[in-house]
Design a protein that fits this description.
alpha/beta; 8-stranded mixed β-sheet; 3-stranded antiparallel β-sheet; about 25% strand; globular
């Protein structure tokens, strides 16, 4: 039976070299291997390329590395959760390659599967398609998206066993499962590491064959940033916004599957009940989004597209 070395975050950080390409799991601060990123921030490596949905939040996760000047390029989808990333780009301190979120997820998955890339209609006719190969498929313009791979994958799991098998918790799965396949070297940070045999084989998301090193690290509320508590979220609620959310809900019918984007769309979930028979989806991979809880944070609940803790309706997945 394979045994994956269990090392410290500092030891893991020493495996990252200057100039490396990193693929990092996480959505906002949820499912982010913050202890690994913090340990890298304590080293002197630089010139790193980070493939990630976002660069943490100010001073958190990748945000610490950004402040240190360790990141020279970021490839991702949603950088405005960290205003310092935007400022770094505008000042020329960092290069950014912006990808649609679904395209980025599929590019990481394709890289892990050994594919060269894929054609997608997403971004066709926009500035993001400039300089890329395009072709007409099924009567629609498609844009070629190259696969994404990395020297090192840094991921966060809820549970791991000593063979490296991983289980992700709720929306903490996000980009982690794909990222685990796309790195030459894969380091998994896990909340708990248990002996082989304690994990249900039917519940394992990432097989241990992908994982090279394990780090056991416990997340605190402070490390979850804006997702730590619903009381401290950046959610904007007003009478006018809720009126629009109610109007949107009226357009939906039983059996509909609906993607809730960031902003006003996420407010629709606060109005939904199981009786509506509508399945709401959040960008980081959850079907069955329910209303915001009265209290609590990402330690207890999944999060939505706005990184805000939400409940799960019965039958969610």
């Amino acid at each position: 039976m394979k045994t994956v070395p269990l090392i410290s975050a500092a030891e893991a950080a020493r495996k990252v070299k200057s100039g490396d390409i990193l693929v990092v799991g996480g959505f906002g601060m949820t499912g982010t291997p913050i202890h690994l990123l913090d340990a890298i921030a304590e080293t002197d490596v630089g010139g790193l390329t980070m493939i990630a949905n976002n660069i943490g939040e100010p001073g958190l996760g990748g945000g610490r590395m950004l402040r240190n000047g360790q990141i020279s390029k970021a490839i991702g989808s949603y950088f405005t959760t960290n205003r310092e990333a935007v400022e770094a780009y505008l000042s020329g301190d960092i290069d950014i390659e912006l990808l649609p979120q679904g395209s980025m997820a599929e590019a990481i998955r394709a890289g892990g599967a050994g594919l060269g890339g894929f054609y997608t209609p997403t971004s066709a006719g926009t500035p993001l398609a400039e300089g890329r190969d395009t072709r007409i498929i099924g009567g629609k313009e498609h844009v070629f998206q190259p696969a994404l791979t990395a020297d090192v994958a840094l991921i966060r799991a809820w549970q791991a066993d000593t063979s490296g098998n991983l289980v992700y918790r709720r929306t903490e799965n996000n980009f982690n499962q794909a990222a685990a396949t796309a790195g030459k070297l894969v380091i998994a940070e896990a909340e708990t590491v248990v002996p082989v045999g304690e994990l249900d084989p039917d519940h394992i998301h990432t097989p241990g064959c992908f994982v090279d090193y394990l780090v056991e690290a416990h997340t605190t509320l402070e490390e979850l940033g804006s997702s730590a508590s619903v009381s401290g979220s950046l959610k904007k609620v007003s009478a006018a916004r809720m009126t629009m959310a109610r109007a949107a809900l009226e357009e939906l019918g039983p059996g509909d599957v609906v993607n809730l984007g960031i902003g006003i769309p996420t407010l629709v979930a606060d109005l939904i009940t199981p009786g509506h028979g509508i399945i709401m989806h959040t960008e980081n991979g959850m079907l069955g989004v329910g209303p915001e809880p009265e209290s609590g944070g990402a330690m207890d609940y999944p999060v939505n597209a706005g990184k805000i803790p939400v409940t799960a309706l019965p039958g969610s997945s």
